[in-house]
Write a structure and sequence with these properties.
The complex is a heterodimer of chains A (205) and B (204). Chain A contains six helices and five strands; from the N terminus they run H-H-H-H-E-E-H-E-E-H-E. With 205 residues, chain A is of the alpha+beta class. Chain A has two domains: 68 residues, no CATH class; 94 residues, ANL, C-terminal domain (GMP Synthetase, Chain A, domain 3, 2-Layer Sandwich). In chain A, a hairpin with a 4-residue loop joins strand 3 and strand 4. The model of chain A has no long low-confidence stretch (mean pLDDT 86). Chain B is of the alpha+beta class and 204 residues long. Chain B has two domains: 81 residues, no CATH class; 112 residues, 2-Layer Sandwich (GMP Synthetase, Chain A, domain 3). Chain B is elongated, with a radius of gyration of 28 Å. About 4% of the residues of chain B have low confidence. The chains are: A alpha+beta (205), B alpha+beta (204). Chains A and B meet through helix 1, helix 4, strand 3, strand 4 and helix 6 of A and helix 1, helix 2, helix 3, helix 4 and strand 2 of B. Chain A: It comes from Arthrobacter livingstonensis.
């Protein structure tokens, strides 16, 4: 249901991986003296820092540069950490109709989602359900997570959702569902609402 | 970020690499804070912090072919490869695909491909988490006569059961267990149905 930053993570890890790998390979080539044969670099036996460090570090532009790099790296890292928090990204208010001066009809998607949850919770074998609406009123996008017990007939549950629950949502919105995603989970708990009768025994004829 | 465009994302997805990302991001944040603090301290005090003295001496004596630089180079190569592997290895899907009920009703092919792009239908995706599949398989298994206890693990292509029984001859029970669990997963609508294997352990 909640969305994570998978693409962002892969992208940044790949970029940093390439940069660190390139730096490491360059360092090793320079230490081995191989880099000197293809580029005008210092010989391996010389010092890395040839001049005095004190005058170099006393330059005002260097302090500003370190400050800017520090702030930039810190802000980007903080943004990356915050991006790891899973988000629901629910839809804003659905604007169902707009009739100029006569007024407009709007609906909070969480109310519709709660109605869907309530209806799904009454289905046989459903332990709990949570629904989330995204998209717009014209292109509603429903994500549904249904937790069932281990004896539930999943095919019957899916048929009921497709033929009853979801069409009712479409009718309410006066628009067909643009997208429906359903995640089924299995619990050891029994249904909190409705009645479930487990038949386990031998039938004698 | 694409996830903020108001649309749902696929429920059957690869791992998000949150742990390596968090580790790298925290290290970068620490580096950023350290650099900022050093620069601000230099601006306020007029001199660089004394903790920089040792790194400065180390840097002044460093040669290009010194063991320290070799070590740094090897460490950077290893770190770069690890980061690239974290980014490039796709990882297992978090859930298994379930056939949609409408496919059975309309007679549309049940190949499980293109569930999100069927013409004339709204886009739909139905999945079952790997944990749910394992739980379902275990629940089916413990109902079979002869099974004392069972545990199950599920991947995208395989469900493995560890069955404890008091029977000495377990081959027949193994066949009954795998058949029953496979049938249960098939009737549930998993597409494709994962391969079911079982390990039998005799007690007593």
């Amino acid at each position: 249901m909640r969305q994570t930053a998978g693409t962002l993570n892969r992208t940044w890890l790949a970029i940093l991986g390439v940069l660190v790998l390139a730096a490491g390979i360059t360092g090793l080539l320079q230490a081995a003296g191989t880099l000197q044969t293809i580029a005008p670099t210092p010989s391996p036996g010389t010092r890395v820092v040839t001049g005095e460090l004190h005058p170099f570090f006393a330059q005002p532009w260097l302090i500003a540069l370190i400050l800017v790099i520090g702030v930039l790296v810190g802000v980007l890292a903080l943004w990356w950490i915050i991006a790891q928090i899973p988000r629901k990204n629910p839809a804003g208010t659905y604007r169902l109709q707009h009739e100029g001066a006569q007024g407009r009809t709007s609906c909070d998607p969480s109310v519709l989602a709660a109605a869907v949850e309530e209806q799904v919770n009454t289905l046989p074998g459903v332990v709990t359900a949570s629904a989330l609406l995204r998209g717009t009123a014209n292109e509603p996008d429903l994500t549904l997570k249904v937790t069932i017990n281990d004896r539930t007939d999943v095919r019957a549950l899916l048929r009921h959702l497709e033929t009853s629950t979801l069409p009712q949502l479409s009718t309410t919105l006066e628009a067909p569902l643009y997208r429906r995603r359903l995640q089924i989970d299995v619990s050891t708990r029994t249904q909190s609402t409705g009645t479930v009768v487990h038949s386990t025994g031998t039938i004698l004829h | 970020m694409s996830r903020n465009d108001g649309r749902s994302t696929r429920l059957r997805h690869r791992p998000s690499r949150i742990v390596p990302s968090l580790i790298v991001a925290i290290l970068l944040l620490a580096a950023g804070v350290a650099l900022t603090w050093l620069a601000v301290a230099r601006l306020l005090d007029g001199t660089w912090s004394t903790i920089l003295q040792q790194p400065r001496n180390w840097l002044a004596g460093l040669r290009w072919d010194s063991p320290d630089l070799w070590g740094l180079g090897v460490a950077a190569v290893v770190l770069g490869v690890v980061l690239l592997l974290c980014a490039l290895i796709p990882g297992a899907f978090t859930a298994l695909t379930v056939r949609n009920a409408a496919r059975e009703d309309t007679g549309v092919g049940q190949d499980g491909v293109g569930q999100d792009n069927e013409p004339g239908m709204y886009k739909r995706e139905t999945v079952m988490t790997r944990r749910a599949v394992a739980h379902l398989a275990r629940a089916q298994c413990v109902q079979i006569d002869g099974v004392s206890a069972a545990s199950a693990t599920a991947s995208n292509k395989r469900v493995h059961l560890k069955v404890t029984t008091s029977l000495r001859e377990t081959e027949d029970l193994r066949a009954r267990v795998t058949d029953a669990v496979r049938e249960r997963l098939d009737t549930t609508g998993l597409d494709p149905v994962p391969r079911v294997t079982a390990t039998m352990e005799t007690t007593g």
